[in-house]
């Protein structure tokens, strides 16, 4: 497992290539050939491959050579079952909302196979596209966020991670919580490290009251965050009698601006968080 800071293998030139993706999308060459003679077991699926889900239909037949309208398609080691496509989201012309979507059938955060030791690190894959987001007005690096919604409150039943910008109010609340030593650096303390974060409501007004999120500061983006969520939060809550599962959870990851590493937020509406939790992280995203 490799520790990765806020680096990006796409870089400055790639950002402009992605903006021109509708005309021509260059190959990234990201896949690493497997060891000679090695044959990794196929990953997934979770859900029926014949399901009529728009995001799944968008990527089902996509390949690195034939992207089917995607900005990029990557099959690590040539393995489609562990691959992903990157598609334009909310504002495609500005590239302020990208979607990283597995090319295997994965309905969402609730899929049991996502917590396995052999599962792809989809959040690491998503993080590799942070550098394609637009720079700020002063040329500063984008204040990015990676987010996935719960099964309780999402629009598409095909796993997709938003690569977009963080709401400025959310950034201020997260930074203050870190300054106040409210965010644990120990994953074993994640369940009890609860902070209040405001975002925006459906009409883009700042929320008057914060919502509750479990917050963890990790140095490593190249890990299985679904497994960590299940092991450190969901399983202990269920053991204690809470009526909660992975299907109720939502995740958001962003850069820690007050020190090293990344801030990981998890929330739900089932486990009795104080402040009250959420089952959708759209309020913390700034899609432009």
Briefly say what this structure is:
By secondary structure, the protein is of the alpha+beta class. It is built from 5 helices and 10 strands, in the order ααβββαββαββαβββ. Strands 1, 2, 3, 4, 5, 6, 7, 8, 9 and 10 form a 10-stranded antiparallel beta sheet that branches.
Kindly give the count of domains.
1
* Strand content range: 15-25%
Kindly report the CATH topology.
HIT family, subunit A
The arrangement of helices and strands along the chain is HHEEEHEEHEEHEEE
What would you give as the CATH superfamily? HIT family -  CDH-like
Sheet/helix structural class: alpha+beta
How far is the N terminus from the C terminus? 34 Å
Q: Give me the number of helical elements.
A: 5
Overall morphology = globular
Could you describe the largest sheet, including whether it forms a barrel?
Answer: 10 strands, antiparallel
> What is the correct CATH architecture?
2-Layer Sandwich
Low-confidence stretches: 1-14, 21-38
- What's the CATH first level? Alpha Beta
Could you tell me the mean pLDDT? 87
Q: Roughly what percent helix?
A: 10-25%
Q: Determine Rg (CA atoms, Å).
A: 18 Å
Quick one: how many beta strands?
10
Family: Belongs to the Cdh family.
GO molecular function: CDP-diacylglycerol diphosphatase activity
Membrane topology: Single-pass membrane protein
Organism: Mycolicibacterium peregrinum (Mycobacterium peregrinum)
């Amino acid at each position: 497992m490799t520790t990765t800071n806020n680096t990006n293998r796409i870089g400055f030139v790639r950002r402009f290539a992605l903006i021109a993706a509708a005309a021509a999308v260059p190959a990234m060459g990201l896949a690493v050939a497997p060891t000679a003679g090695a044959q990794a077991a196929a990953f997934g699926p979770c859900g029926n491959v014949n399901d009529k889900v728009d995001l799944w239909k968008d990527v089902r037949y996509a390949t690195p050579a034939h992207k089917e309208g995607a900005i990029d398609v990557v099959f690590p080691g040539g393995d489609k079952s562990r691959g992903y496509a990157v598609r334009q989201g909310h504002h495609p012309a500005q590239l302020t909302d990208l979607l990283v979507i597995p090319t295997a059938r994965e309905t969402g955060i609730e899929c049991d196979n996502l917590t396995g030791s052999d599962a792809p690190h989809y959040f690491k894959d998503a993080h590799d596209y942070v550098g394609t987001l637009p720079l700020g007005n002063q040329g500063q690096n984008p204040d990015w966020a990676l987010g996935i919604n719960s099964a309780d409150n999402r629009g598409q039943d095909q796993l997709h991670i938003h690569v977009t910008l963080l709401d400025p109010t959310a950034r201020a609340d997260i930074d203050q919580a870190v300054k106040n030593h409210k965010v644990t650096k120990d994953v074993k303390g994640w369940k009890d490290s609860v902070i209040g974060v405001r975002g925006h409501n459906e009409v883009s007004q700042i929320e008057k009251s914060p919502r509750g999120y479990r917050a963890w500061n990790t140095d490593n983006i190249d890990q299985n965050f679904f497994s960590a969520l299940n092991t450190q939060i969901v399983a202990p809550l269920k053991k204690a009698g809470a009526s909660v599962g992975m299907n109720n959870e939502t995740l958001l990851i962003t850069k820690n601006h007050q020190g090293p590493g990344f801030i990981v937020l998890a929330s739900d509406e089932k486990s009795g968080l104080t402040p009250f939790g959420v089952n959708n992280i759209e309020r913390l995203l700034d899609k432009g």
